[in-house]
Each structure stands twice: as structure tokens, then as C-alpha cells.
Write a structure and sequence with these properties.
This protein is of the alpha+beta class. The chain has four helices and 16 strands. Helix content is about 40%, strand content about 35%. Helix 2 packs antiparallel against helix 3.
Length: about 350
């Protein structure tokens, strides 16, 4: 009886397991919905997919002109009032954008008004210094005459009493002191007016130079290309491409680039939960949305060391650069691409079809 119970306890589960195995495995295949799928052994690549943007590895930068970035001009942001379409093929010297001149023109007008005032102040200072120094020279001349009169009195006093002689000698000494004082006052006043005039002259020279720089900055608001290429506009602080009426900061001076497509890269961002899986040199298969019949190969060339916030992601992401092994004329800057980054390989691994 006990023996029959043991057979029952161990036999029923065994039959169930056998039934399950027979249900799923038939002639080395998988049965599902009346179909058989073959389980094979083979290699499997572990892949991370990320959306990127096609760019030239090297590019000529078109920045805000240095004269506009001059801190003395006090123009810290400037608006784009007109621009060509992104992706336009341009030649050296072609127009690509026009910047707003309003703030520069207003500051130029203020400096020109200040220059007029400084000019008038300088002329008045020169006139006043001439009048004042002429007056002091006359006072010196009068003091010298008083000294001569006192000298005559001193010479004649030898025939007078000792008290009178003492009195005339003191008057002569006082006249001498007065002459020296007048001469010192003249030198001090001369230096004071000289410094004031020199200060005004230097301020005027600075204003002349600043006005010239403002005029140069106004001329530089018309942005042209330094060489041939395809125009790709820069990005705003929020990651969006520059467009009409956007403002460019002197701290982010990049207006546009002219990428060199002889060496192509894909700039992409990978979530922080996946970044530890990647290594520099990992192989990448790249597909282009605009070129569905083509695919390209590449490798991871750069992985950022610090994560950042990026639009479209709820977590920190790391910038990753993928370099294409080859390039062709069909690749254009700004194209959207999908990077299939292979971070691991499995060999002789059971592979079950997805449909199963």
C-alpha cells in the first residue's frame, strides 16, 4: 500500500512534466498555435539603439564677430533678424544672416553725444586754464613789483631809526615770501589744469576709438561665410536650432558651422542606465531615416565623462560620438540616424524565433 502511494506521489508530477515537454518540443521544434518553430544555436549581438544626428567630424565655425563681442561695447545679446535656410550650399563670402543693429546704434548715438559734451568741456578747460594762468602770472608780476618797492624802502631805511629799519626789513621778507607763494601757486594751478586737459583729451581719444568700433560692429552685423560649404545653424541654450528672432549671446557665440563631410560622425545621447555597457571602439551599425535602402558601419569614438539634462529624456544622458567608417555624397549634415551600438556578443547560444 505504501509502495503504491509513493508511485502515485512521484508518478503524477512526472507525467505532467512529460506532457508539458511533449507539448512544446516536437522533433527539436517549438509548437505554438499549430506552427512549429525551430530552435537553433548561433551568435547573438547585444545592441543599444539610439537616435543621433549626422555631422561632419570637422567643421568651420562661424561665430559672432570679435568686434561685436568686445566687452567695451556692452552688447551682450543680439537678435537674428534674417537668415538663410539651413542646409543651403554657399560659396565663400555669401550672405547667411543679418543681426539686429538697434542696440549697437543706440549705444553709438549715446557715445557720440558724450563725445560732443567732452569736446565742449575740453575747449572750455583750455580757455579757463589760459585765463586763470594769465591771472596768476599777473599776480606774480605784481608781487615782484611789491618786492622791488620794499627793497628800495629797505635801502633807504639805513638813514632811519633802528625800529624803522627793522620794520622795512620785515616788509621786504614778507614780500619775498609772497613772491615765492605766487610762483608755487602758479605751478600747482598749471599742473592741475594740465592734468584736467590731458584727462579730457584721453577720454576723447577713447571715445573716438569706441565710436569707430561701434561703426565697425554695425558693419559686422551682416554675417557671411568664410569659405564654401553647407550652412548648419548653431543651437540655442535649450538645444533648439537658431531661428529668426532668436538672440545670440556673446558667451555662446556660435552662429553656424560649415561641416566637412569627408569624415562623418553621428552625435547621439545614451541614457545613464545604459552608458556603463558601452566602451570606446564598440562597433555600430547605422541606418539613415532619409536613406532607407542604405546602412553604414562605424565605431564609438567618444563617450562623455559627465551626464547632462537633454530635451526628450527623463533622466541624465551621456553624449556619445560615433564615427562612420565610410562616407558618400548621400550623407548630409543634420540627417537623423539610428545607431545600433553592439556592446556584447553571444556565441553558440540557443536562439528562439520572436514569433514563437
Amino acid at each position: 500500500m505504501k509502495k503504491n502511494k509513493k508511485l502515485l506521489i512521484w508518478g503524477v508530477p512526472s507525467l505532467l512534466i512529460l506532457a508539458i515537454i511533449l507539448f512544446f518540443l516536437v522533433d527539436g521544434g517549438v509548437v505554438a498555435g499549430g506552427k512549429t518553430y525551430v530552435v537553433k544555436r548561433g551568435k547573438l549581438d547585444a545592441v543599444i539603439e539610439s537616435v543621433g544626428e549626422v555631422k561632419g567630424e570637422k567643421a568651420t565655425e562661424i561665430n559672432l564677430p570679435l568686434v561685436i563681442r568686445d566687452r567695451d561695447l556692452r552688447v551682450y545679446q543680439i537678435k537674428i533678424v534674417d537668415m538663410v535656410e539651413e542646409g543651403k550650399i554657399v560659396k565663400k563670402g555669401d550672405y547667411i544672416a543679418q543681426l539686429d543693429q538697434t542696440e549697437i546704434s543706440n549705444r553709438l548715438r549715446d557715445r557720440m553725444q558724450e563725445k560732443e559734451k567732452r569736446d565742449a568741456d575740453l575747449k572750455n578747460a583750455r580757455i579757463d586754464s589760459t585765463v586763470r594762468l594769465t591771472q596768476l602770472r599777473q599776480e606774480i608780476a605784481n608781487a615782484v613789483l611789491d618786492l622791488e618797492y620794499n627793497k628800495i624802502d629797505l635801502e633807504q631805511s639805513q638813514y632811519e631809526s633802528e625800529a624803522y629799519q627793522r620794520k622795512t626789513q620785515m616788509a621786504y621778507q614778507k614780500a619775498e615770501i609772497q613772491v615765492e607763494k605766487k610762483r608755487r601757486d602758479y605751478l600747482l594751478e598749471q599742473n592741475r589744469w594740465k592734468m584736467r586737459v590731458l584727462r579730457d583729451e584721453r577720454r576723447l581719444e577713447w571715445l573716438d576709438d569706441l565710436i569707430a568700433r561701434y561703426e565697425e560692429a554695425i558693419a559686422a552685423t551682416r554675417i557671411t561665410t568664410p569659405e564654401d560649404g553647407i550652412v548648419m545653424f548653431g543651437k540655442n541654450w535649450n538645444g533648439s536650432k537658431y531661428s529668426k528672432d532668436d538672440e545670440i549671446s556673446i558667451w555662446r557665440p556660435l552662429i553656424a558651422t560649415l561641416p566637412d563631410m569627408s569624415s562623418v560622425i553621428s552625435e547621439t545621447y545614451v541614457k545613464e542606465i545604459d552608458i556603463s555597457k558601452l566602451s570606446k571602439g564598440d562597433s555600430v551599425n547605422i541606418t539613415i531615416e532619409a536613406l532607407p535602402n542604405k546602412s553604414y558601419s562605424g565605431e564609438v569614438n567618444y563617450i562623455a565623462a559627465i551626464g547632462e539634462d537633454h530635451p526628450g529624456f527623463e533622466m541624465k544622458v551621456f553624449k556619445v560620438i560615433v564615427r562612420f567608417h565610410d562616407s558618400d555624397d548621400a550623407l548630409k549634415p543634420g540627417m537623423t540616424c539610428i545607431n545600433h551600438i553592439v556592446f556584447d556578443h553571444y556565441r553558440d547560444h540557443p536562439l528562439i524565433p520572436v514569433d514563437a
